[in-house]
Each structure stands twice: as structure tokens, then as C-alpha cells.
Write a structure and sequence with these properties.
By secondary structure, this protein is mainly β. 10% of the residues lie in helices and 33% in strands. The chain has one helix at residues 28-32; strands at 6-8, 11-13, 35-40, 43-47.
Amino acid sequence: MKKLTFTHAGQVIRNPFFSACGQHQVNPIEAYGFESVETGGGLTLPMAITCC
């Protein structure tokens, strides 16, 4: 099974709801610059928007 990850400030992040050290819960919009995206049905999710 392939896991989704991303890199932020040189750290590999596996769960955007936790800090890079994995010990603290964070808001991915504030901590990693994710954007809030409405998916329909009143549901809003944090999404990483990448470019280029």
C-alpha cells in the first residue's frame, strides 16, 4: 500500500493533522498552508494545493 506524504520545511509529513514531530495536533490550514475546499453537501476539507 502506498502512503501519501508531503514535505514541509524539510520534514516529511504523513498526517497533516499532526506536527512534523507527530506529537501535537495542528490545524493543517494554519500549520502547512493548506486551503479550505468545499466538497459539497456542506463538507469542507483542508487540501494541499500544489503548483508546477
